[in-house]
Amino acid sequence: MDLFGSTEAHRGWTVERPWGLSGPEFLELYWIALAVTLGIAIFVRVRLRGTRGVVPAGVLGLLDIAYLTGGPRRVAETSVAGLLDAGTLVPARSGSVRIADSTVPAHPVDQAVLADATRYRYRTLTLLITSVSDHDAVLDVGRRLSSMDYLVAPEVAKSRLRAGVVPMVLLFVVGVARSVNGLVIGAPVGWLTLQLVLTGVLVGLLVKASPLMLTATGREAVAKARAGGITGGWGGTGSGSANAAELVALNGFSAHPDVLLRAAARTAPFPRPGARSSGSRRRSASGGAYAGGTYSATTGGGCGSGSSSCSSGSSSCGGGGCGGGGGS
What we know:
By secondary structure, the chain is mainly α. The protein is built from 13 helices and 6 strands. The strands form 2 sheets. Strands 1-2-3 form a 3-stranded antiparallel β-sheet. Strands 4-5-6 form a 3-stranded antiparallel β-sheet, with helices on one face. A hairpin with a 2-residue loop joins strand 4 and strand 5. Helix 3 packs antiparallel against helix 6, helix 4 crosses helix 5 and helix 8 packs antiparallel against helix 9. The longest helix has 27 residues.
């Protein structure tokens, strides 16, 4: 037994120096290791966004650029703006739109927009855009861009980022073991605890993948599109000035030149409890105007032609009902 104790003391494994390291020495090594593992995680993240040497195939369209700049919702906004430009959709009162042309467009996203709008006589812009944003046709745009090396596929991003933080997780495990050992022998572990908390926070931040992670190729494509818009025309359209759909693709519906359509496309904030009844919220979402506790339908399919109104409670309308089109 004495021989064993002498051997451990010779190696430095004493109560004052568990694992052969004093407290300050372990803390210093932990900081160094944390810096190294942080560098590894950052390198993986930067590398993930870099060009992987794949030559993109095909030419990007307006909806592709919209996805790169704003994701699925931006694609739906751009499609709606394009259909409004073409006259296929026309604005109605109270922020709603209706179909004016039955021509079937070629792009699946445009088809999805018209299919949703066809279900209603009048469809509010907010509900139309929100509904189409989750459509498979919109998500297929992102999948195509991932296959063309403009975007990092979400599953690939998650896998790579998790692999990048593995060294930091192992360091965290070592730190926890050291902390437990310190508690057993009665050594102070305050500074080590702070290091462990910092490590856990870094792991949580570095493992998160952005919902829209562009590669170097994707960022270059967006930069070229923005440059084209600034110089008078988007991409290869050759137009003298950017149209509404191009402006929306690059900057969102808040850049649409029509002020009324811009306001209608904004997502309305949820009212405070007791501000209005649930029934009036549903009617307001359909495109009517709510003011002073009274709901006035102003669309063609609403409460007459402006002469009749619905109270926020139980009043009913003849000929089309309140808010025709926005509800489900």
